[in-house]
Amino acid sequence: MCGALDVLASCSSSDDTGPSSVDAAAAPDAMSADATDAAVSLRDAALVDASPLPVVCASSSCATALVTTFGDYIVNDDGQGFCALLHDRTVACWGANVSGQLGRGEEAAAVEGSSTPARVAGLERVVALDHSCAVDEDGATWCWGTGPFLQSATNRTTTLRTPVKLALPSATRVGVSPTVGCAATGEGVLCWGYNFYGQIAPFDTMPRDTWSAPRKLDLPAGAPVRQLAVGDATFIVREDGSALTLGASPPIGRISSMSPDPYAAVVGLDGISAVDIATDNACTTAGGIGYCWGAAMPGAVDTLSRAYPKGLVTSDPLVGIATTRTVTSLAGSQIPYRWCAVTVSGDVDCWGFNESGQAGNGSKDFATDAVRVVGLPERAVSVKVTRSTSCALLTNGKIYCWGSNFDGQLGNGNNKGLALIPEEVVLP
User: Which GO molecular function, any one, fits this protein according to its record (predicted)?
Assistant: First the structure.
């Protein structure tokens, strides 16, 4: 049965017809509350030392990390796919392939999507992975798909159906968006691509409408880089749990007199685990508490209502949150999509849009409150989400997905259909 907010997502048929739009006539006049507030519950999550559970491979088909892919530009919604770092340090991808994000070579150019995971061509000895870029044990950075991969004289985005090595110093981490890339190297954090939000250099040294070669960010001294997360803002997460941000405001997640802000500064959260960002929306966990923030709702009285990290009220401490792109057109307005989170005990909760069953609770009703994903055979290590599909990496190294399969993003070997509860990905 649809609840009061379920009109935002259709109580649709079981046919998986691709990314769905919501009937504008069914939309409410306004949405005053942030949908992230729907991560309801019983009590405020206590401040705890929460970290993801480890992966212990139970078979030769085993993954140790899970990421999403993106298309030629994230607003096109053609990036619904996933990649996994396998135990043998190769990478396997499945789902959409419109922009070459499966990495299967030119012979697969006509394949728009694949429900059968396969290894990315020529990629091995991988130690770090972000979207369709990887770092190998020698420190080389490799990328495939469509993005700012330093393959043109103008440094603009290019499409690569086979991984190419980027002309960068030895790196330990890489982070990419459809228009900006960053790498943690011995020379510091280098970033390149489109400087529209000042993620490459301040505007007094580089105009906004500039595509740039790699440049070193001016960062204060600190602990080594644990993660680089790049969207409309760039997050540099350090091993001590601190994080620096620069770029669009929001989602830089801190008070600034500049918008965008091209100068890196510290976010006011301690003990940050990892950041998930999609264009102008970001989430993280710190001390077992989940936080989300991003662009304000159109027409909001308080234009900064979502600008800064806001703690979620949850029944259990969290170790990770995944988010999709913040907004979608709806009756002339824009509203948040959805989120999934992993609890300290390894359960997965989702809330928000659910028209394809992507909340994983066996229904297609809009998840006003956080709902528990049912049917996962083991505890979860991490969760990742696209607009219409969710996937979780489990402690035994298996991956389970649920929701839409229009582009093969369930990875179950079937071309179409959808899954209201998790199904196992057929890893190579």
Answer: guanyl-nucleotide exchange factor activity
Q: Which two tokens stand for residue 91?
A: 């990478």
Q: Which residues contact 76 (CB under 8 A, 6 or more apart)?
A: none
Which amino acid belongs to residue 210?
Answer: T
Give the dihedral of Cα atoms 66, 67, 69, 75; nearest 10 deg: 140
The winner for highest mean pLDDT among 78-82, 234-238, 253-257, 300-304 is 234-238
Query: What is the C-alpha to C-alpha distance for residues 361 and 15, in angstroms, rounded to an integer?
Result: 18
Maximum alpha-carbon separation in the chain: 57
Report the CATH number at residue 80.
2.130.10.30
Distance of alpha carbon 142 from alpha carbon 123, whole angstroms: 8
Within a domain: 24? no
DSSP state of 52: P
Q: Which residues are CB-contacts of 109 (< 8 A; sequence separation ≥ 6)?
A: 100, 161
Q: Are 114 and 96 in contact (CB under 8 A)?
A: no
List the structure tokens of 387: 């607009």
Quick one: which H or E segment has residue 339?
strand 338-343
Q: What is the pLDDT of residues 190-199, one digit of tens each?
A: 999 999 999 9
Its domain, for residue 209, covers 6-18+31-424
Quote helix, strand, coil % in the chain, to nearest 5: 5, 40, 55
**What is the distance between the alpha carbons of residues 76 and 16, in angstroms, rounded to a whole number?**
18
| Per-residue pLDDT at 34 exceeds 70 | no
Q: Would you give the DSSP letter of residue 120?
A: P
Q: What is the pTM of this model?
A: 0.87
Structural domain includes residue 23: no
Q: Chain-centre distance of CA 253, in angstroms? A: 16
Alpha-carbon distance of 325 to 187, in angstroms, equals 32
Say which DSSP state 278 is in.
E
Inside any domain, residue 1: no
Higher pLDDT, 189 or 280: 189
- Per the domain annotation, does 356 fall within a domain? yes
- Give the number of domains in the chain: 1
